[in-house]
Amino acid sequence: MRKPDTPTARRAALGNTILLGGLALLSAALLLLHAGVLRWRDPGAARWIDATLVLSAWLGLLGWWRQQRLPAPRKLLALADAAAAQDPLAVVNGARVDAVRAEVGVHVIYAGQTGFAEQLARQTLQSLQAAGVSARLHGIDTLTLDELRHADRVLFVASTTGDGEPPDMAQAFSRLTMRQPARLDGLRYGLLALGDSDYEDFCGFGRQLQRWLEVSGARALFDPVEVDSEDEASLRHWQHHLAMLSGVSDLPDWQAPKYQRWRLTERRLLNPGSVGEPCFHLELQPLQGSANWQAGDLVEIGPCHAPDRVTTWLAASGLDGRVPVAFGKERLPLAALLQRCRLPEVHEIDGLDEEAVAVTLRLLPHREYSIASLPEDGAIHLLVRQMRGRGGYLGLGSGWLAVHAPVGAEIALRVRSNGNFHAPRDARPLILIGNGTGLAALRALLKARIAAGHRRNWLLFGERHAAHDFLYRDEIERWLADGRIERADFAWSRDQAERIHVQQRLREAAGELRCWVDAGAAVYVCGSLDGLAPGVDAVLRDVLGDARVEQLRVQGRYRRDVY
Ligand SMILES: Cc1cc2nc3c(=O)[nH]c(=O)nc-3n(C[C@H](O)[C@H](O)[C@H](O)COP(=O)(O)OP(=O)(O)OC[C@H]3O[C@@H](n4cnc5c(N)ncnc54)[C@H](O)[C@@H]3O)c2cc1C
Ligand SMILES: Cc1cc2nc3c(=O)[nH]c(=O)nc-3n(C[C@H](O)[C@H](O)[C@H](O)COP(=O)(O)O)c2cc1C
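Above: inputs. Below: predicted complex with flavin mononucleotide.
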């Protein structure tokens, strides 16, 4: 590679030339001292060893000296910045400033609950590395204040859960590290905050993190990027910042993970006669290739409108649904495209023809569902509750899966890894606590444990009436009878006069809970965010104490997938 031609480089080249010239003259002078013919004589083993030792010591000294001359990463970057302000091609410590920046590296830290933050953090890492920037990925649960103090540039990808709360993996960081300002004067950071504006506290945790970084003296590399749902424009904005950071003009666009084509092969009502909304067991099979996943993973499905909704919209707009239109690389009838897209207000598309309308359309947002099966089952199983709002509206995702999509219909689906809810790697006891459709993920975890031969499984499950809402009853009773589930407690909230929930069952079994946790058990909670999650958390704290619960969380032995 050609060395840059700068004043510093020219001075270094001149110095090297003078030194080499001097050494050549010295060797010539020494040669003159030998009057006779030069003859080789073996100096003997002892002298060879002495010479080797002296040479090694000399090389070691040179290495040490060079190391001492290398400035610390932060100082090196400050030098690079100062030099770049004068001359973008300047050389610092023998390398061009953009190379210095790339070498010092970036830490990418994610804080997420259900895998999206981690996925985007990984994409961020790959983009940086592809641009030649050295970068490392960590979860916020392993991040210490000391590491932050020594880091130079950090990119955070942080989601929000609950009502504006940090994800579980960021709880300790938020409660302990962010409790007060830290001294992070030299730190520069970028922030990608993930959220959903349907929630009152939009990007709540991302904003808390940003405020803390600010009062701690860290400097923002650029304005925080907030992503509403999976908004592509904000993600492109983030990629633009990554390109600037990497010193490249552009980075290839991230491809949103593509949906795969699946077929709905079975739909079975699991709670006939329930006073609650219907709950369905669904089975789906891939139309192309195969899929892989682990217990705890999720699917994202691309919902569709009910066909009559599209027909009504087309009638109101006066457009012909049979006209083929372009959408990305696809060409399909307008009616088929409309089924998968947000339907604009009719007045918004006034005067546009079918092709022009297609250009304005945006896909409906995805919906997440826990996978209730293992790949060995030969199909993805879902447990979906049909949601209905006060006005009688069917929910978008659950309406499509539970009502509108006929068995045999094609479903747009992609699997999303959810590392936070993967089963423990070892045989430790597992306490699985859930209610309602939360049983989906617990069922997959139980299947994985049973397949691995781990029998120390304790299930606590709650629903309304044992007679109607005991989802997957036969299977669970069989596992219990076979000893594959060691213990099960059920809370049928409406089978008696006063309401009983899972958290009460857990409290009643406080002694047993302590024994299981003492034996190394992990606690997995899946189900409703209101009620179950805070209720179980309160019981765990009462029975085990705050410090023990925090310890469990930090050790990855207390995990939640609540929604
Ligand atoms: C990690 C995770 C795992 C999950 N796992 C599961 C699972 O295993 N099983 C499961 O069933 N769910 C699961 N969910 C929940 C699921 O993702 C959806 O949130 C749920 O199905 C509701 O979405 P929807 O699209 O049907 O309802 P939405 O369309 O989001 O609507 C929500 C509510 O508002 C009402 N509504 C919609 N439009 C209107 C309107 N215009 N006016 C008035 N009211 C309206 C709907 O009727 C519904 O009651 C999970 C969620 C997460 C985050
Ligand atoms: C149970 C639940 C609660 C949420 N609460 C909020 C919230 O209070 N504010 C917000 O902006 N987004 C909220 N979100 C949206 C998430 O932050 C968003 O979907 C994010 O992309 C999830 O990323 P993750 O998978 O890495 O956790 C919530 C999502 C869920 C499932």
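The mean pLDDT is 91.
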